[in-house]
């Protein structure tokens, strides 16, 4: 039915109570980006704007609204790990989305133990 169609051109506004863009692709998995600061502090943060982008060569990535710790760490060290949040990890994931200072180890904050990076380590 034509009345069920909502055309959304961001530059023209959406006319709704909430910006619908965040829900356009739903449900979607949550990527959990782990990284390490130049000073060695571990960082962990959920990013739902993430995906695998290519097969050969394998390319994965995430997109940040602004310059956050995960982005800075990936730039500074040239590496990040790309993990997938599963249902049993959702409570721990929630603890890692707070805006804490870069000196806070978010593995410790969420009660998780990191594994040494192996095949999941990504180079920027
Ligand atoms: C389920 C979920 C999905 C999120 N997805 C994104 C995202 O795609 N992009 C983004 O910039 N922030 C996203 N956030 C917010 C970040 O996780 C949050 O800003 C976090 O503090 C960033 O951590 P960092 O500074 O250690 O990178 C998401 C939060 C949650 C709970």
How would you characterize the overall build of this protein?
The chain has one domain (28-123): Electron Transport, Fmn-binding Protein, Chain A (Pnp Oxidase, Chain A), CATH 2.30.110. It is 16% helix and 24% strand. With 124 residues, the protein is an alpha+beta fold. Strand 1 and strand 2 (42-47) form a beta hairpin. The N and C termini lie far apart (45 Å). The chain contains three helices and six strands. The longest helix has 9 residues, at 69-77. The strands form two sheets. The chain has a four-stranded antiparallel β-sheet, with helices on one face. A two-stranded antiparallel ribbon has the order 3-4. Bound molecules: flavin mononucleotide. Flavin mononucleotide is lined by residues 30, 43, 45-49, 63-65, 68-70, 97, 99.
Keywords:
124 residues; Pnp Oxidase, Chain A; four-stranded antiparallel sheet; elongated; 6 strands; alpha+beta; 16% helix
CATH architecture: Roll
CATH class: Mainly Beta
Largest beta-sheet characterization: 4 strands, antiparallel
The helical percent reads 10-25%
Strand content: 15-25%
Number of domains: 1
Would you count the extended β strands for me?
6
Please list the strands of the largest sheet in the order they lie side by side: 2-1-5-6
Could you outline the blueprint of secondary structure elements for this entry?
Elements: E1 31-36, E2 42-47, E3 50-54, E4 59-62, H1 69-77, E5 79-84, H2 90-95, H3 106-110, E6 121-123
Antiparallel strand pairs: 1-2, 1-5, 3-4, 5-6
Bound molecules: flavin mononucleotide (FMN).
Flavin mononucleotide is lined by residues 30, 43, 45-49, 63-65, 68-70, 97, 99.
């Amino acid at each position: 039915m034509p009345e069920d169609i909502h055309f959304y051109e961001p530059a023209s506004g959406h006319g709704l109570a909430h910006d619908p863009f965040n829900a356009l692709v739903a449900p979607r998995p949550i990527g959990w980006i782990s990284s390490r600061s130049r000073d060695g502090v571990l960082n962990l943060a959920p990013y739902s704007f993430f995906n695998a982008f290519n097969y050969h060569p394998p390319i994965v990535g995430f997109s940040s609204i602004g310059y956050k710790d995960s982005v800075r760490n990936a730039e500074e060290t040239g590496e990040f790990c790309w993990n997938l949040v599963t249902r049993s990890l959702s409570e721990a994931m929630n603890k890692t989305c707070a805006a804490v200072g870069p000196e806070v180890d978010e593995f410790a904050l969420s009660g998780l133990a990191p594994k040494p990076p192996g095949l999941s380590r990504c180079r920027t």
